[in-house]
Amino acid sequence: MMFLSFFFLRLNENSLYLKQVNPRNGRKAPMAAGTAKGIDIFLIKQLNNNRIMKHQMPQLPYAPNALEPKMSEETINLHYGKHLQTYVDNLNKLSAGTMYEDMDLEEIICKATGPVFNNAAQVWNHTFFFENLTPAPQCIGKELSEALTKEFGSVQAFKDKLLASATGLFGSGWTWLVLNKDGQLEIVNTTNADNPLRNEQKPLLTIDVWEHAYYVDHRNRRAEYLSDVWELINWRAVEERMKSASCNVYI
């Protein structure tokens, strides 16, 4: 007589176990290698919801009106509350049931292409941008100031180059201060959703130059927007990223 084996899943914090039940005595034993032929492994993974990455909206470190008058509450509500929310929602929909569903953002950015990459990168880029703004004006710290002076000649020269690079970026994209593969500070532009992580560069600062970042407050006056954003940059966070860049900590 042929007996059918019954399978069940046991989950804990870290692991997925597949057990085989002997219908003669009810005893359970781990499945041997190769025993799972014919079992839909994809279905098993879907059942293990604890292992599927669910991307969430980041929390703003300030109130929506805290950046006024440099950046209005209306802009924050649209840029953060609508645009970023759409990228998060799209990423969760696009990654469900794919190899990307249990990856973190940085891994997706480095491995994905097309719509999955675009939405993952825009979630990362926007999170980085919003978390690098502060309502409390700051001076650039000593260590960062010295590093900028060493690389660009002076802090003012760095500011001029950064804002000129952002102003001159054609179309939509991002302007970054990064630590490059040689450990040097560098200003780079990326178009659309692109991210320096794909080029083994470590982001320290970014400015969003998509038009949706400034059309409410500044219409098409990008240079005016950039001047205001400069006054909102959290320079302490930039300096901390520079000091901890070797640990790959960005956000």
Characterization of the model:
The protein has a 3-stranded antiparallel beta sheet, with no helix packed on it. It has a 3-stranded antiparallel beta sheet with strand order 5-4-6, sandwiched between helices. The chain is 41% helix and 14% strand. The protein has 2 domains: 6-51, no CATH class; 53-251, minor pseudopilin epsh fold (3-Layer(bab) Sandwich). The chain has helices at residues 41-47, 73-95, 105-111, 114-131, 142-152, 155-168, 215-218, 222-230, 235-244, and strands at 6-11, 16-21, 28-30, 173-179, 185-191, 202-208. The longest helix is centred in the middle third of the chain and has 23 residues, at 73-95.
Put simply, the count of helices is 9
How far the N terminus sits from the C terminus, by CA atoms, comes to 61 Å
Overall structural domain count: 2
CATH topology assignment of the largest domain: minor pseudopilin epsh fold
The largest sheet, given as strand count, sense and whether it forms a barrel, is: 3 strands, antiparallel
Average of per-residue pLDDT values: 82
| Share of helical residues | 40-55%
Secondary-structure element series: EEEHHHHHHEEEHHH
Any idea what the radius of gyration is?
24 Å
